[in-house]
Amino acid sequence: MAMDKSKSQRSEAALQSSDVSDEVVSQVGKAAVEILKLRQSLEENMATAQSDEERESLTSRVEMAAVRAIDEQGLTVEEYNEVLAAARSDQELEERVLLACKAA
What's the mean pLDDT in 12-37? Predict the structure, then answer.
Protein backbone atom coordinates (compact mmCIF):
# COMPACT_ATOMS: atom_id res chain seq x y z
CA MET A 1 0.00 0.00 0.00
CA ALA A 2 2.80 2.45 0.78
CA MET A 3 4.14 2.16 -2.77
CA ASP A 4 0.72 2.87 -4.25
CA LYS A 5 0.32 5.97 -2.09
CA SER A 6 3.73 7.40 -2.97
CA LYS A 7 3.16 6.63 -6.63
CA SER A 8 -0.13 8.53 -6.69
CA GLN A 9 1.40 11.45 -4.80
CA ARG A 10 4.23 11.55 -7.33
CA SER A 11 1.88 11.60 -10.31
CA GLU A 12 -0.19 14.36 -8.71
CA ALA A 13 2.87 16.52 -8.05
CA ALA A 14 4.03 18.70 -10.92
CA LEU A 15 7.37 18.05 -12.49
CA GLN A 16 10.22 20.18 -11.30
CA SER A 17 13.09 21.46 -13.38
CA SER A 18 15.45 18.89 -11.87
CA ASP A 19 13.08 16.11 -12.97
CA VAL A 20 13.40 17.04 -16.66
CA SER A 21 16.56 16.17 -18.57
CA ASP A 22 18.24 18.63 -20.94
CA GLU A 23 17.39 16.28 -23.80
CA VAL A 24 13.67 16.37 -23.02
CA VAL A 25 13.75 20.16 -22.62
CA SER A 26 15.42 20.39 -26.04
CA GLN A 27 12.81 18.08 -27.57
CA VAL A 28 9.97 20.13 -26.06
CA GLY A 29 11.57 23.35 -27.33
CA LYS A 30 11.88 22.04 -30.88
CA ALA A 31 8.32 20.73 -30.90
CA ALA A 32 6.99 23.99 -29.43
CA VAL A 33 8.64 26.02 -32.19
CA GLU A 34 7.07 23.78 -34.85
CA ILE A 35 3.66 23.99 -33.18
CA LEU A 36 3.90 27.79 -33.01
CA LYS A 37 4.59 27.86 -36.77
CA LEU A 38 1.59 25.59 -37.34
CA ARG A 39 -0.65 27.85 -35.22
CA GLN A 40 0.46 30.94 -37.13
CA SER A 41 -0.24 29.19 -40.42
CA LEU A 42 -3.66 28.08 -39.15
CA GLU A 43 -4.58 31.62 -38.13
CA GLU A 44 -3.62 32.94 -41.56
CA ASN A 45 -5.54 30.20 -43.37
CA MET A 46 -8.60 30.52 -41.13
CA ALA A 47 -8.91 34.15 -42.14
CA THR A 48 -9.35 33.13 -45.77
CA ALA A 49 -11.35 29.93 -45.23
CA GLN A 50 -14.66 30.08 -47.07
CA SER A 51 -16.71 27.61 -45.03
CA ASP A 52 -17.01 25.86 -41.68
CA GLU A 53 -15.99 22.61 -43.39
CA GLU A 54 -12.82 24.21 -44.68
CA ARG A 55 -12.04 25.61 -41.20
CA GLU A 56 -12.64 22.19 -39.60
CA SER A 57 -10.38 20.55 -42.18
CA LEU A 58 -7.63 23.10 -41.54
CA THR A 59 -7.92 22.63 -37.79
CA SER A 60 -7.79 18.85 -38.11
CA ARG A 61 -4.71 18.95 -40.36
CA VAL A 62 -2.90 21.30 -37.99
CA GLU A 63 -3.76 19.15 -34.96
CA MET A 64 -2.39 16.05 -36.73
CA ALA A 65 0.76 17.96 -37.74
CA ALA A 66 1.25 19.13 -34.14
CA VAL A 67 1.02 15.56 -32.85
CA ARG A 68 3.50 14.51 -35.56
CA ALA A 69 5.90 17.35 -34.55
CA ILE A 70 5.81 16.15 -30.94
CA ASP A 71 6.22 12.52 -31.99
CA GLU A 72 9.18 13.37 -34.24
CA GLN A 73 10.96 14.70 -31.18
CA GLY A 74 10.53 11.34 -29.44
CA LEU A 75 7.85 12.57 -27.03
CA THR A 76 4.25 11.68 -26.40
CA VAL A 77 1.64 14.43 -26.36
CA GLU A 78 1.19 13.70 -22.66
CA GLU A 79 4.92 14.18 -21.93
CA TYR A 80 5.00 17.38 -23.97
CA ASN A 81 1.96 18.80 -22.18
CA GLU A 82 3.29 17.71 -18.78
CA VAL A 83 6.58 19.58 -19.28
CA LEU A 84 4.80 22.72 -20.51
CA ALA A 85 2.36 22.59 -17.58
CA ALA A 86 5.24 22.22 -15.14
CA ALA A 87 7.08 25.12 -16.78
CA ARG A 88 4.13 27.39 -16.01
CA SER A 89 4.72 26.93 -12.29
CA ASP A 90 8.51 26.41 -12.25
CA GLN A 91 10.46 29.48 -13.36
CA GLU A 92 13.72 27.56 -13.81
CA LEU A 93 12.04 25.01 -16.08
CA GLU A 94 10.27 27.79 -17.96
CA GLU A 95 13.60 29.50 -18.64
CA ARG A 96 15.13 26.22 -19.83
CA VAL A 97 12.22 25.60 -22.21
CA LEU A 98 12.40 29.18 -23.56
CA LEU A 99 16.14 28.80 -24.18
CA ALA A 100 15.48 25.51 -25.98
CA CYS A 101 12.88 27.24 -28.17
CA LYS A 102 15.36 29.96 -29.07
CA ALA A 103 18.00 27.35 -29.89
CA ALA A 104 15.64 25.34 -32.09
Answer: 90
